[in-house]
Amino acid sequence: MPIVTFPNIVNALVFAMVGILIFVVAFFVLDKLTPYHLWNEIVHQHNTALAILIGALSLGLCLIIAAAIH
After folding, report:
1. Is residue 8 part of a domain?
2. Using one digit for the tens of pLDDT, what is the confidence trace for 53-66?
3. What pLDDT, on a 0 to 100 scale, did the predictor assign at position 39?
4. What is the pTM of this model?
5. Which domain holds residue 33?
């Protein structure tokens, strides 16, 4: 019996889309909770410390979402 079947591919794509959607919503909520606009601070103001913090936060959030979906 093959491991890669059509239902397995569809399930993987659905769970990937659900995870990405949850991450995007959580990131926008985080952006609204901060007193400043994250994208403006990182890109235009070149705030490296904030970029590292948001990157670490994103990785942590992705790990939580992956564990919850798994």
Report:
1. no
2. 999 989 998 898 88
3. 86
4. 0.77
5. 17-69
